[in-house]
Design brief:
5 helices; ATP-binding; single chain; three-stranded antiparallel β-sheet; 114 residues; alpha+beta; 3 strands; nucleotide-binding; actin-binding
Length: 114
């Protein structure tokens, strides 16, 4: 699902794309007695530290079809636009089994929407 990716390559990509370029993204300051943090995001209520250990594995949750359908029917135009209906299946392609990699996850839907 994430070819040639690891939690470390994810962190490296975050740093290369956001560190020093986005005010909300920071390198965490080490704190005694707290778990190791790999990056920090500045939210409206304060700075939140994140640990990347197991990040990719934790974000392989399948996207729930009923939630996706609910968003597609939303009156909030941007929400509906982020979750377009899937393209109609070609009748000639029907009948075969789906490939294992065709399951859409929350992270893959998020990536496609941008």
């Amino acid at each position: 699902m994430f070819p040639k990716s690891s939690d470390t390559t994810f962190k490296d990509k975050l740093y290369s794309q956001h560190l020093g370029k986005t005010k909300a993204f920071e390198k965490p300051k080490p704190a005694k007695g707290k778990a190791e943090a790999h990056f920090s995001l500045v939210h409206y209520a304060g700075t939140v530290d994140y640990n990347i250990t197991g990040w990719l594995e934790k974000n392989k949750d399948p996207l729930n079809d009923s939630v996706c359908q609910l968003y597609q029917k939303s009156g909030v135009k941007i929400l509906a636009a982020l979750y377009p209906p899937p393209p109609p299946e070609d009748k000639a392609k029907k009948g075969g089994k789906k490939k294992g990699g065709s399951m859409q996850t929350v992270s893959s839907q998020f990536r496609v929407s941008f």
